[in-house]
Design brief:
Blueprint (H helix, E strand, L loop, with lengths): L2 H10 L4 H9 L1 H16 L9 H10 L1 H31 L3 H32 L5 H17 L1 H17 L5 H16 L15 H24 L8
Length: about 240
């Protein structure tokens, strides 16, 4: 069998280029599904400054469920990385390598912060909350909320890189691009939620619900754009 025949077979066979393109482009939907499942399993994290009894009751009483959610979240970071890789390849196909590189950088930052967040939560449930060191437990719980707030900036950059790249490539309409720009602005605002209480607190409704929902909806929308974007070269 000639080299050219082998290359053609590898790109058109059952596990060829088309298979991998479909697989990796589906990871955005997988990311959203795993995020929702992990959130439901994890439950409601104690707020900033929660009492020692509340912290022990949550991290100790729900230890098994928290560790299961941590494992799912760790796996979901991989889904995020592959989703970003599919974005990068599609943008490179469309001649938008700069925005594709920004997608890679921002997704790496998001994934790194999420890994730290999952690690802190897992350590709290695994041993710290039951050690009797209430000061350390409270500090790590507050640190987890701070990570949620600070992760807003790379999350907003990821939305910006993907949205601007798709718009410049003509893959999304001007109207959809305008919605994405609004999502970027709302995402950056998520990094300012440092009020001591209410909706704009680190543990408030904006950080807990509004901004995450915006991000997940964007991933779903972009996944649909990826599904209908033709691949012009072998990216996988």
């Amino acid at each position: 069998m000639s080299a050219s025949t082998t290359a053609t077979s590898s790109s058109t066979g059952k596990y060829g280029r088309a298979f991998w393109e479909r697989l990796w482009r589906m990871n955005g939907i997988s990311f959203v599904a795993f995020a929702i499942i992990a959130y439901v399993i994890y439950g409601t994290q104690p707020p900033v400054g929660a009492s020692a009894d509340a912290l022990v009751a949550f991290y100790g009483g729900h230890r098994t469920w928290i560790l299961i959610a941590a494992a799912l979240s760790g796996l979901n970071v991989l889904n995020l990385m592959w989703f970003a890789a599919a974005l990068r390849t599609t943008l490179a196909d469309a001649g938008q390598d700069g925005w594709g590189t920004a997608t890679t950088a921002s997704s790496a930052a998001v994934g790194g912060l999420f890994f730290v967040l999952v690690t802190v939560i897992a350590v709290l449930a695994y041993s710290v909350a039951g050690s009797g060191n209430n000061t350390l437990t409270s500090g790590l719980n507050d640190f987890a909320w701070a990570l949620v707030v600070l992760s807003s900036f790379p999350r907003a950059m990821l939305i910006m890189a993907g949205s601007f790249g798709f718009w410049r490539a003509g893959l999304i309409s001007n109207a959809l691009f305008g919605v994405c720009v609004a999502a970027v602005v709302l995402g950056v605002l998520g990094g300012t939620t440092w009020v001591s209480g209410g909706i704009w607190a680190p543990d408030g409704a904006y950080s807990r619900f509004v901004w995450p929902i915006i991000g997940l909806v964007w991933v779903v929308v972009v996944s649909r754009v990826l599904a209908r974007s033709p691949a012009t070269r072998a990216g996988w």
